[in-house]
Amino acid sequence: MLDASRRWRRDGKSIGLVPTMGALHEGHMSLVHAARAENDVVVVSVFVNPIQFGPNEDLDRYPRDWARDLKMLEGAQVDAVYRPAADEMYPTDASTRVHVGGVTDGLEGAARPGHFEGVATVVTKLLAAVDPDRAYFGQKDAQQVAVVKRLVRDLDLGAEVRVVPTVREADGLALSSRNVYLSPEERKAAAVISAALREAADIYASGERDPVRLRAHLAARLALEPLVQPEYAELVDAATFQKPGTLAVIAARVGKTRLIDNHDLEKPFPG
Ligand code: AMP
């Protein structure tokens, strides 16, 4: 990968990287399209990163469909797909992990111990292997965006971090590779998450600024859907992930499936 990247650089080409775990959907493709528009060369990485999954998480059943992923990427004028093997990324004697402090403390970091260390380590390795001018991440994973921005800044990794808006289904549900786990009833119920964000944005737009009341509204709206068990619903600062702020973030279980979503209340909810 690094040889290819160095050749492109020698030829004066700019490189955009889109890191993914495969099971591609239109959310991923929106990142690819953004990279295509802004770079001479587009590299998509497909790697289900084992170290960002906790021991009781869904690593083994995480959806994988390489043939389908490749077809989608071929149709989107991607120049290269980087798909390392897990033992290539993490030989048994690999002993380095990247820890980003502060911004990883709460919410996803608290709910998933070790998750962001896994994310920061793999992103560091992907940036080292591809050496892109720009790397593309989805707003869907807002805390990941904050972690990656901090990581790139603190370690002088050089790539420009580009953030792409969340792609949603018609009823508002954020596209996610994990949505395939949902039964038809759960899939319907899951729309309450984006509905709560939309209503909070409406209330904010009508002048409500009290984070306690905005947060209470999120909780009350989620509570109306018995198939959805919220893990957290908070208002945080988008860069530090400390309270308070105007980024509304939600994590909830729908059956066995854990979903996350977020919306910056200073912006109108799309659609
Ligand atoms: P994943 O394969 O789930 O690790 O996601 C790879 C990248 O795609 C991450 O930067 C995600 O934030 C982004 N992504 C996932 N779902 C969406 C979505 N619905 N809209 C925009 N970006 C997304």
Q: Helix and strand layout, with pairings?
A:
Elements: H1 2-10, E1 15-20, H2 26-38, E2 41-46, H3 66-74, E3 80-82, H4 86-89, H5 108-111, H6 115-130, E4 134-138, H7 142-154, E5 160-164, H8 184-189, H9 191-205, H10 211-223, E6 228-236, E7 247-254, E8 257-264
Parallel strand pairs: 1-2, 1-4, 2-3, 4-5
Antiparallel strand pairs: 6-7, 7-8
Helix pairs in contact: 6-7, 9-10
The chain binds adenosine monophosphate.
Structure summarized in a few sentences:
This protein is an alpha/beta fold and 271 residues long. The protein has helices at residues 2-10, 26-38, 66-74, 86-89, 108-111, 115-130, 142-154, 184-189, 191-205, 211-223, and strands at residues 15-20, 41-46, 80-82, 134-138, 160-164, 228-236, 247-254, 257-264. It has a five-stranded parallel sheet, with helices on both faces.
Order of helices and strands: HEHEHEHHHEHEHHHEEE
Please give the alpha-carbon distance between the first and last residues: 39 Å
Question: What topology, given as strand order, has the largest sheet?
Answer: 3-2-1-4-5
Strand content: 15-25%
Q: Can you tell me the CATH class of the largest domain?
A: Alpha Beta
Name of the CATH architecture of the largest domain = 3-Layer(aba) Sandwich
How many helix segments? 10
Class per helix and strand makeup = alpha/beta
Hetero groups in this structure are: adenosine monophosphate
For the secondary structure, the number of strands is 8
Which parts are unreliable, with pLDDT below 50 for 5 consecutive residues or more? none
In total, how many domains does the architecture comprise? 2
Can you tell me the CATH topology of the largest domain?
A: Rossmann fold
Shape: globular
CATH superfamily of the largest domain: HUPs
